[in-house]
Amino acid sequence: MLRIRNLNAYYGKVHALKNVSLHLNRGEIVTLIGANGAGKTTLLNTLSSVIPGADGDIQLDGKPILGLAPDKVVSLGLSQVPEGRQVFNPLTVEENLELGAYLRYRAGGKRNEIAADMERMNLLFPRLKERRRQAAGTLSGGEQQMLAIGRALMARPRLLLLDEPSMGLAPLVVQEIFRVIQQLRAEEGTTILLVEQNARAALKIADRGYVLETGKVVLEGKAAELLENKDVQRAYLGHE
Ligand code: ATP
Fold it and tell me: What is the ipTM of this complex?
């Protein structure tokens, strides 16, 4: 579904991604782990085309997407849930979700289909349903994260990129977010690329994983194997 070959990204003279190659098969959950500054966010932002000047090859379902406008990439089925959630604070929950469907409205999408998807968000996130007229800025961190995921889903992505969805959240809320990620794959077959500091939890729900260090992929494998890997345990898993 997604194939990245020899991807390089730069911030001025900083070479932030160095010949990164990776792939995601349809319906997979793949996690990207790595220390602060390894380049995880840069990789997601390059996929979403919000960082200019990258080189290499990125194909989504066989179509090259590197260098396309960000809205075009979303239209082709790739949506990102950004680090730090970035919901629109003054707008209500409902308005934030509606904005996620903006490109569908613009393309003349069927209003009843969009309305059905709004209903689907109510089922997926019952806590948001209760708060649909509340300003997003007044939600808890966990609720904002769910809203950010819901907003991305309103674009009907086939590939969802999640940037540190568990950041700063209490353990029970993290469990809820990870449950939703699994549910999305199980019920809708959504392919998911999950960036996480919480490597253990991410590897537990992922099929495969990649380890990124200073802009390079240094290790890849089945999630179960990475969980058992001594280097991964030492660097990223800490102690149980
Ligand atoms: P974190 O978990 O801390 O978000 P990360 O793995 O997502 O880390 P990136 O944010 O992708 O890492 O950063 C990769 C490298 O690029 C780092 O060395 C960082 O300092 C650098 N970098 C990121 N954004 C910029 C920017 N806007 N300008 C210059 N350098 C940047």
Answer: 0.90
